[in-house]
Amino acid sequence: MKCVVLNRKGDFDRWDQDLLTELRNVKVNDATSDDGVIYQDDGLKVSVIGLESYERHPFRVLSNDFNLICLTGGVALSRSSNGQISLLIFEKGENTPIHLNNSGMINDLQNIGESTLVFGLIEFCLNKETDQYFTDIIQQIMLAS
User: What is the pLDDT of residue 50?
Assistant: First the structure.
């Protein structure tokens, strides 16, 4: 993914008022959105997001590390709760890991290209139990090697 920053963090002066209102109304529990979910268990959530040309996915709370896989290639615009607006350019099949470092993020995604844009989103839903599970697996691998 190539990212071109169009509007810097902290600058909301050029934002559309309707988008600011939508952003202010986002609830933290929106992070549990089941929009597009095709599989979920205690440690993993897999979603598919499809955007027709110029369609926009509303602001969404993401609180877990995730991988974003672009299945089609294309160009999108993303607005973040910190004010940053970015132009995102994706190649077909590109996998972009996003590490939130326990900070979370709120952003939208708008297809600004002329063809459909499809993403796979794999969220790693770590909690104390699943974190310990993965820690145990890593320790077992380290002991075996």
Answer: 96
DSSP the chain: -EEEEEE-TT--TTS-HHHHHHHHT--GGGGG--TTEEEE-SSEEEEEEEE-TT-EEEEEEE-S-EEEEESS-EEEEEEBTTS-EEEEEE-TT-EEEE--TT--EEEEEEE-SSS-EEEEEEEE---HHHHHHHHHHHHHHHHH-
CA distances (Å), origin 58, targets 18, 28, 55, 122, 145: 12, 14, 10, 18, 46
Is residue 48 within 8 A of residue 119, CB to CB? The reply is yes
Q: Which domains does the chain have, with CATH numbers?
A: 2-144 (2.60.120.10)
Give the pTM: 0.81
- Could you say which residues of the chain have pLDDT below 50? 130-131, 134-135, 138, 144-145
